[in-house]
Amino acid sequence: MDFSSVTAQLKAHAERVYPEECVGAVVRNASGALEVREFQNVSPEPRRRFLLSARDTLVLAQEDLVAIYHSHPDGSDQPSPEDLAQAWEGTWILVVPVRGGVAGQPSARFASRERIRSSS
Ligand SMILES: [Zn+2]
Fold first, then answer.
1. Which residues of the chain have pLDDT under 50?
2. What is the pLDDT of residue 64?
3. Ligand 1 center to residue 21 CA distance, Å?
């Protein structure tokens, strides 16, 4: 899966909300192109976790969802065990590492039941 067309948007979002975690989605629009949907991180601990509001989750359920992305402020570019456990099966998990306010290249991992099992 090639996310290069949306990488700059993901990095910009991650840098804008640093040192908190950003959260959003990559969806496929009617013409088949990837589009970014930025959401608000409603977690009570936004520097360490991300959470979508119930309303945004409903909005997302009506989209052609390809990936959920979030950032790791001064953390790893790899999804945490919790990220994997929360992942929407059949979608990609994109993690944007941000060091000192500067975003790096996002990592991409496909969330399937087998993958989640094997990583635990
Ligand atoms: Zn994470």
1. 115-120
2. 95
3. 8
3-state SS, residue 12:
helix
Going from the Cα of 70 to the center of ligand 1, the distance in angstroms, rounded, reads 6
Question: 81: which 2 tokens?
Answer: 């065990």
Ligand 1 centroid to Cα of residue 43, in Å, is: 12
Whole-structure pTM value: 0.91
Centre of ligand 1 from the C-alpha of residue 48, in Å: 8
Looking at residue 118, its pLDDT comes to 46
pLDDT at 7: 98
Task: Delineate the domains of the chain, giving CATH numbers in brackets.
Answer: 7-119 (3.40.140.10)
In contact, 35 and 27? CB cutoff 8 Å: yes
**Phi (first) and psi of residue 9, to 5 degrees:** -65, -40
